[in-house]
Amino acid sequence: MKTQDAKKRELLDGLKDGLIVSCQVQHDDPIYTDDMVVKMAEAARWAGAKGIRTNSPEQIRAIKEAVPELPVIGLWKVWHDDTDVFITPTMEEVKAIWDAGAEIIALDCTKQTTHEGTVAWDLLEQAKKEIPEAIFFADVSNYEEAAHAVEKGADIVAPTLYGYTAETKDISEPDLREFARMCRDFGDDAYMMMEGHIYSPEDAVKCLFLGAHSVVVGSAITRPHLTAKRFTDLMGGLQDNWRNAERAKH
């Protein structure tokens, strides 16, 4: 069942049929500047976006100060060589995101093993108990993980990590048929959002038609170096796949 908390429902209902822009920048990105994520967020607000998704307490605070009227989905990417789990992997990151001011906390809810030796999706229950006021956004990679996230009480579920796990690592396009099945089966119990591999407004509209509550778009809007690389890779015969750059650890 979707949350019955009036405050949470008001925020989540305000995102319906809207665009959420993922405003993230890493220190080794060619577009990096200290205020780049703020400019991204201000541009998203100007365009009519209904929310922001961003990485790290530092960037969350900067965006909340600049565009306080837009709700923030916060996460914290932490990479380790022994695991593919990198989105908000422990309670330390969960608490830091909440303290930074994010209304919504995104975390890895796949069945992968973390650097700490736990199963990633086990963190959701712990986080909900420790911060019951927060809204939790489950990043999954397949139907099974979506079902588990809904069962454990995720407020939002999205196939964010489709293409980022061992089973799906060679995927570069969204699986709209599978997303439609998730919306059909879980839409009454969680807010289903689409995130991952959406590169055009037309694809975003398709997702709304299939049942998405909202659509999150990042690289196609806020990472022009990756957009340019999609062109050069295809025009050069795919001698160097841009997806490797998108998946790179920082």
In words, what does this structure look like?
- Its EC number is 5.1.3.9.
- Pathway: Amino-sugar metabolism; N-acetylneuraminate degradation; D-fructose 6-phosphate from N-acetylneuraminate: step 3/5.
- Keywords: Carbohydrate metabolism, Isomerase.
- Converts N-acetylmannosamine-6-phosphate (ManNAc-6-P) to N-acetylglucosamine-6-phosphate (GlcNAc-6-P).
- With 250 residues, the protein is of the alpha/beta class.
- The protein has a single domain, classed as Alpha-Beta Barrel (TIM Barrel), CATH 3.20.20.70.
- Helices cover 40% and strands 14% of the residues.
- It contains eleven helices and eight strands.
- The protein has an eight-stranded parallel beta barrel, surrounded by seven helices.
- Helix 2 (36-47) crosses helix 3 and helix 6 packs parallel to helix 7.
- The longest helix is centred in the first third of the chain and has 12 residues, at 36-47.
- The N and C termini lie far apart (37 Å).
